[in-house]
UniProtKB/TrEMBL annotation:
Annotated ranges, domain Dienelactone hydrolase: 45-218
Gene Ontology MF annotations: hydrolase activity
UniProt name for this protein: Dienelactone hydrolase domain-containing protein
Originating organism: Mucuna pruriens (Velvet bean)
Top-level taxon of origin: Eukaryota
Amino acid sequence: MLGRECYSNSPILNSSSGAGHVTNIGGLNSYVTGSHLSVLVILLISDIFDKLAVKGGYRVVCPDLFNGDPFDPENENRPMPVWLEDHPPEKGFEIVKPVIEALKKEGASAIGAAGFCWGAKPVADLAKSKCIEVSELLHPAFVEVNDIDEVKIPIAILGGQNDTISPPELIKQFKQVLDAKHEVPSLVKIFPNAPHGWTVRYDPKDPIAVKAAEKAHQIIEKSCYVPLCPRVEDGKCYLFHSYNFDYKYKTGME
């Protein structure tokens, strides 16, 4: 079950935010930033992905997987268990497939996926399907050992030492499974003193938290390259992020 860590301490938008636009991709309203000529895509969660678009030359895409219905912690009549009945993570795979198909029609030669919290489950399912080239799970929720056992593509999993939703014990089990899968390149890392949501939900005034998040962001970028993504030509791939409990579609992000 998810906790307050999943929706507290929301990312703060600043002057680097809003560099992109909202468009329809595969039937989903999606925030897009970066060059439309790039054969690299990342799904946007917060302003960090604008930075990745500039630095890595990626095209960044963040589809609204919740169809304009993010979880609202202030709505006491619709607690998270009720909200999850309308947005089960097991359905995320089918929701995001049309987006991937649309990206391929637009010329994507390699597609990757990264999922945070809720989004980790659909990304794990994508990693089992081989319809993408590289996958990333960050403080994953709803992911089980059996999911990892079926992964067929390069994968990176980042967890936090103080994460009670995806605790270190579970992340270590994921690593044991992946270590036995010699045919699947993998990277598993547990960040010290990091809580759930630490890669996107952190206090920007806390230098330790900022450093840990920035390190995770670097791993997100570098996992596009060898050895995690050996099939990508010229070090280029689409990086696809499916996540956000408070992604709000209006004219962009809020």
